[in-house]
Design a protein that fits this description.
Elements lengths: L1 H41 L6 H20 L4 H9 L3 H64 L3 H27 L1 H19 L4 H8 L3 H54 L1 H19 L6 H32 L5 H30 L9 H4 L8 H14 L3 H22 L1
Length: 421
């Protein structure tokens, strides 16, 4: 009975975890579009680390969107249209692998950029430490000046003391003038003894001068520290360029995946079903007897949530495209294959996770710990670029009009989504 509990408890807990994952992905998807207008205003004021990361993501979305607008999407579509089902099947498998690799690269470059921001933070801390030293010196001088200026009564007492000391000084000056002949005599003796001093061995003094002092070592460390600070902006610039390039490649991979799904949907439902079923059973074969622990389980949930989100996005864009091109399309014509595909995907996920928990003796209650026990990576903006790019191709509006309408609609949807969830 204990083994049978894995098959009964896993599907329910799995769907709860994946729904949380998809909800977070949709919230992040809408959040990126909301960041773009905010980041434009943030360019004119000082930004912290989080604001800089948000500005980088917004800038990447806009730049990649403008670059991808130069591609001839119709030509790419017709090139893939003449391919056979076998070629589409192989292409989709290659694209899935390339997507995982590029996601890893995007995440690594984003982490490296955050580390360079942390280096700059250390530099700022170093500067503030020097400034605090200067401030403490000024504070000391201020305290000394305050201690010299007391109340009016104390000033009068000091004036009296000053007059007394002046009288004593005049007396000592008179005594000094009397002793001047003795001082001249001693100066003559000192001049006679000078040659003996010059003949002394001064090699030990030269050897001490040759030793590096603490001051020189501190200057050397300061020079090396300043050299690192000068190279930090250049390193950060190179990492940002790589981040934008890899994000652009990730967006292209997502676009080719969308084209394969769209071609299968436009060809016939049997072609689409054959493609999706074959890919799902290959995934099932590779994960049913897979060994792992709780962290492996969380990674599988994250991957399954991403695949469902990608498939939903592709079908949504495909539905919008067919709606704009053919106004007589019915909801049932679109919903029928979509529901069949999602039902198949959900069934495969249930089988895969049930046997994974069964073979590795993982309690299905661990699915409830996914939201707090797994750190998700939120450095990807390829989905946002893809949806913005294809929406612009569909609407055929001018750039300013399209962007204004798009961000206005997104802001309304974001407010509704935040109120609901």
């Amino acid at each position: 009975m204990e083994n049978l509990s894995f098959y009964s408890r896993t599907p329910y807990n799995l769907e709860k975890a994946i729904l949380i994952d998809i909800k977070d992905r949709i919230s992040y998807f809408l959040h990126i579009y909301r960041l773009i207008p905010i980041s434009i205003f943030n360019l004119f004021r000082k930004q912290n680390g989080q604001s800089k990361r948000d500005t980088l993501k917004a800038f990447t979305v806009i730049l990649c969107f403008l670059l991808l607008r130069c591609l001839y999407t119709d030509k790419i579509y017709h090139i893939l249209k003449v391919q056979s089902l076998i070629r589409l099947y192989v292409l989709f498998g290659v694209l899935e692998l390339a997507e995982k690799l590029l996601e890893t690269l995007v995440d690594d470059f984003a982490i490296a950029i955050d580390e360079t921001v942390g280096t700059v933070k250390n530099v700022e801390d170093h500067v503030s430490l020097n400034e605090s030293t200067v401030i403490s010196t000024e504070r000391f001088a201020e305290i000394m000046s305050i201690s010299k200026e007391q109340t009016t009564g104390q000033k009068n007492d000091r004036t009296t003391d000053f007059n007394r000391k002046t009288t004593d000084f005049n007396r000592k000056t008179t005594d000094l003038n009397r002793k001047t002949p003795d001082l001249n005599h001693k100066t003559t003796d000192l001049n006679r003894k000078t040659p003996d001093f010059n003949r002394r061995d001064t090699s030990h003094l030269n050897s001490e001068n040759r030793k590096p002092t603490d001051l020189n070592s501190e200057n050397l460390k300061t020079q090396n520290f300043n050299l690192k600070n000068e190279t930090a902006p250049l390193t950060k610039l190179i990492l940002i360029l790589f981040f934008i390039t890899v994000t652009l490649g990730h967006t292209l991979i997502l676009y080719f995946q969308y084209l394969v799904v769209l071609l299968s949907l436009n060809s016939s439902t049997s072609v689409l079903y054959s493609l999706i079923i074959s890919l799902q059973f290959i995934e099932l074969r590779g994960n049913v007897t897979k060994k792992g622990d709780k962290n492996t389980l969380f990674t599988m949930i994250d991957n399954d949530g991403l695949k469902r989100f990608n498939l939903s996005l592709y079908l949504l864009i495909g539905f919008l495209m067919r709606s704009f091109e053919c106004s007589s399309i019915g909801w049932f014509e679109f919903l029928e294959p979509s529901l069949i595909i999602f039902s198949l995907k959900i069934s495969i996920d249930w089988i895969k996770h049930s046997f994974f928990c069964r073979y590795n003796k993982i309690d299905p209650s661990n699915y409830t710990k996914y939201e707090t026990g797994y750190e998700k990576r939120n450095n990807f903006v390829g989905h946002n670029i893809l949806f913005l790019w294809l929406s612009a191709d569909l609407m055929k509006f001018k750039m300013v009009k399209f962007l204004t309408l798009f961000f206005t609609v997104n802001f309304i949807i974001s407010m509704i989504w935040r109120r609901i969830f």
